[in-house]
Structure formats: C-alpha cells, structure tokens
C-alpha cells in the first residue's frame, strides 16, 4: 500500500509538471506569435507611410538597385512585389532568382483585402517564418518577414532544464510522499492494533463504516470460533456418556458379574445407549450437511398443508405411544422450499411437542395463510421458562436435561430447525410458559 501511494504521488507530480510546462509554453508561444505579428504590422505600416517604394520607378533597374535594407535591417526581410506577383526587390536575395509570388496566401490576401499574413514552418531549420503583406497606393505589395524559433525548438531547448527540474521534484516527491504515507497509515495501523477495543474511535471519519464492519466481522469470527469450540466440547461430552454406559454394562456382562435376572435390564440399557449414540451421530452429521450444502439446495413449490398433514399422520403412532393426542387442521397454502428440509423441520417440531408433553397431553399442528404461509405447532406440555427461551435453539441446550435424555432427545433438534428456517429466509417465534405449554410458529 505504501509503495502504491508513493508511486501515485510521484505520478501525479510528473503529470502536473508536464501539464504545467506544456501549458505555460503554449501560452507563452501564443503571446510571442501575437507580438511578432504586431511588430511586423507596425513595421510594414511605417515603411508604407514613408512612400519610399512609391517614389521608386519599378521599371528602372538603377533605381531598384539603389534600394538597400541589408545594412540597416538585418533581422527583417523586405520584399516588393508588382501587381503580377513578380518580385521587384528583396533585401535577402537577388530578385531575378525568385519565382512568382502570386500563389502565396499573404500576397493573395493583400491584393484582395489590402493586408495579409501567414506563417510557414521549416522543419529542417526548426523555425517559423512570419509574413505580413500590405497593398501600396501604386498597386504593388510590400511584404515584410522575420524568422522565429518554432514551438518544438522551444521545447527542445528547455528540455534539459525541465528534465533537471523534473528529477529534483521527483526526488522531493519521493521524500515527501514517504513522510505523508507514514503519517496517513500510522493511524490506520494503530486502528488495526485496537480492533478488540470497543471504545476505540476511527482516526478518519471516512473509515468509520469500515471500522464498524471490521469490528463486527472480528466479533463474528470470535463468536464462531467460540461456538465451534463449545460445539466440539459438547459433542465430546454427549458422545462420552452413552459410550461410557455401553462400555460399563458390557464389562460387567463379560466378567460374569450380572445375575441372569439382571441381564435383560443391562441389554435394554445397552440398546438405549446405542440408540442415543446413533441419534447423536445422525444429528451431528445432519448439522454438518446443512452447514456445507446451504448454497446447493434445490427449491420448488410445495404444498405446506399436504406436507404438514403427512408428517402429522406419520407421527400419530409416536404420539399414541406417549399417550398424547395429535391433531391437524388448516387451509391450503404453498411455499418455495426444499421438501426434505421442510419435512425434517415439521417432524422435529412435532416430536419435541410430543417428547416434552404430559400424560394425556395434546399437540395441534396448524397451517394457515392469512398474510404469509404459517406453520404452528402447539402443545400443552411442560413449557419453557422465560429465562431459558433465548437459548433453546442453541446446540445441545436442554431445558430439562434429565427428561430430555430419558426421552431420547439429543439437544440438536431445535438447532436443526433454526438452521432450516434461516435457509428458507423464514422466521420462527416462540411463545411458552411453564405448566401452560409451548407454541412454535414458523412464518415463511
């Protein structure tokens, strides 16, 4: 970043110097041209006002040869041209060796409008020749001309000085940009060292949104790392319990330390622990799959009414085994989602309502479509205290730990439900009170 800032500052300096040089030179040369033209016009007018060329007979060679501007005017070329374009006199060369000048633009303009001017460039000489012609009273044209350095020659002549200045300024810019970059980045580096400080304020107002975003992402990363660490610890603990039980029971059976009357009980406990272990593993795998394939789900239009009714019918046997009545009611409505996930969501909610219910309890599944498609699972079971309601969707969290394990709960059901709800861009609401029951409402 520092190198980029330094390079850009130096680049800006070079562009600024080049633009300034070109601009000033162009303006200067424009003013210079204007001054040269003005001087030529004044000179031509002075020569015209002397009427000198009107007193000379252009047909008499001796009088023409008597004209001499070579000694007095060394930087000015004076040319006298007759009405046919022939050169009568030129103070620079012999007039007899010159071609007809009627094709020259300044001569044509002078015959037509009284005055004319033009500039012709000589690339080989690196000079511009300025011409100014004026029509005399006797019908001839007097033209004056002078050479001036071209703009390209000006550029070339001052190029060494400009390059030297450019080099010095680049060196100065490198030094200043180094200092400026350090001053600009020092607060940012300090900000990076204080990301964990909630009270630290951004050194630049423009960086406040960036700082807030970084802090939020930093907090999310820490939270995710802690959640992963807690999840790993919980998994280890949850898996250790049934494995320890299985190991203990089998060790007793293997050592012959169990009476025949107790063996059946031990076998039952081993089976329960094995089932619990299998349920834990399946739920952990399922959560891992949801995390990994969240962006690869296939969605379709699904009848929420039919799907909820099928799940209620499938779980009726489970409810009956727990002496809980399960009913279904609602109206036809559709949602866009993944069928397998939505089935898993409904089954988890209904199984929880059955598992944490009382003897002769009641579970009702309702599908409605008032403003949005809504699924509601309501029970009159043990309920959830207000202090626990914010944590029931956490992985491995149980309100009644002893009852959850006794009924086969893994503590991951509602975590799976929450994940599926988020994938479907829905929301879940919880309404519960101890001794009254619990209502879970999913709004799509």
Please give a structural write-up.
The protein is an alpha+beta fold and 444 residues long. The chain folds into three domains: 2-154, PAS domain (Beta-Lactamase, 2-Layer Sandwich), CATH 3.30.450.20; 197-292, Helix Hairpins (Orthogonal Bundle); 298-443, Heat Shock Protein 90 (2-Layer Sandwich), CATH 3.30.565.10. The chain is 54% helix and 18% strand. It has a five-stranded antiparallel sheet with strand order 2-1-5-4-3. Strands 7-9-10-12-11 form a five-stranded mixed sheet. A two-stranded antiparallel sheet has the order 6-8. The chain starts with a helix and ends with a strand.
Write the layout of secondary structure elements.
Blueprint: H1 2-49, H2 52-55, H3 61-66, E1 77-81, E2 87-90, H4 105-113, E3 115-122, E4 127-135, E5 141-149, H5 151-193, H6 208-254, H7 260-292, E6 300-303, H8 304-314, H9 316-321, E7 325-330, E8 334-337, H10 339-355, E9 362-369, E10 373-379, H11 401-406, H12 413-423, E11 427-433, E12 437-443
Helix pairs in contact: 1-5, 6-7, 7-12, 8-10, 10-12
How many separate domains?
3
State the name of the first-level CATH class of the largest domain. Answer: Alpha Beta
Share of residues in helices: 40-55%
Largest sheet: 5 strands, antiparallel
Output the CATH topology of the largest domain: Beta-Lactamase
Number of strands: 12
Task: Summarize, please.
The chain is of the alpha+beta class. It contains twelve helices and twelve strands.
Considering the chains and any ligands shown, give keywords for the structure.
444 residues, alpha+beta, Beta-Lactamase, Heat Shock Protein 90, 3 domains, five-stranded antiparallel beta sheet
């Amino acid at each position: 970043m520092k190198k980029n800032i330094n390079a850009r500052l130096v680049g800006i300096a070079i562009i600024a110097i080049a633009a300034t040089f070109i601009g000033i030179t162009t303006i200067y040369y424009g003013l210079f041209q204007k001054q040269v033209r003005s001087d030529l016009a004044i000179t031509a007018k002075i020569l015209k006002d002397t009427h000198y060329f009107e007193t000379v007979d252009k047909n008499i060679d001796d009088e023409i040869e008597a004209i001499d501007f070579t000694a007095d005017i060394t930087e000015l070329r004076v040319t006298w041209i007759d009405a046919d374009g022939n050169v009568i006199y030129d103070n620079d060369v012999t007039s007899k060796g010159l071609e007809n000048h009627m094709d020259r633009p300044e001569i044509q303009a002078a015959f037509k409008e009284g005055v004319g001017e033009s500039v012709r460039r000589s690339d080989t000489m690196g000079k511009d020749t300025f011409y100014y012609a004026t029509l005399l009273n006797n019908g001839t044209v007097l033209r004056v001309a002078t050479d001036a350095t071209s703009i390209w020659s000006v550029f070339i002549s001052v190029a060494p000085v400009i390059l030297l200045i450019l080099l010095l300024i680049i060196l100065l810019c490198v030094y200043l940009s180094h200092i400026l970059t350090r001053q600009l980045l020092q607060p940012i580096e300090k900000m990076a060292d204080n990301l964990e400080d909630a009270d630290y304020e951004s050194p630049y107002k423009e960086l406040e949104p960036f700082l807030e975003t970084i802090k939020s992402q930093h907090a999310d990363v820490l939270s995710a790392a802690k959640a992963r660490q807690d999840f790993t610890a919980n998994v280890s603990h949850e898996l250790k319990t049934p494995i320890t039980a299985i190991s203990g029971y089998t060790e007793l059976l293997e050592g012959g330390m169990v009476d025949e009357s107790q063996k059946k009980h031990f076998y039952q406990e081993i089976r329960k622990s094995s089932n619990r272990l299998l349920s834990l593993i399946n739920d952990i795998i399922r959560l891992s799959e949801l995390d990994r394939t969240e962006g690869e789900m296939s969605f379709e239009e699904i009848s929420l009414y039919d799907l909820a009714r099928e799940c209620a019918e499938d779980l009726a046997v489970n409810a009956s085994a727990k002496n809980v009545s399960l009913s279904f009611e609602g109206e036809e409505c559709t949602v866009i989602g993944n069928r397998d996930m939505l089935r898993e969501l409904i089954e988890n909610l209904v199984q929880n309502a059955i598992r944490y219910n009382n003897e002769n309890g009641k579970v009702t599944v309702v599908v409605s479509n008032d403003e949005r498609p809504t699924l509601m699972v309501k029970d009159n079971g043990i309920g959830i205290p207000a202090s626990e309601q914010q944590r029931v969707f956490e992985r491995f969290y149980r309100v009644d730990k002893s009852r959850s394990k006794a009924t086969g709960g893994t503590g991951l059901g509602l975590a799976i439900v929450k994940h599926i709800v988020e994938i479907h861009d829905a929301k879940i609401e919880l309404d519960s009170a101890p001794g009254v029951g619990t209502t879970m409402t999913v709004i799509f």
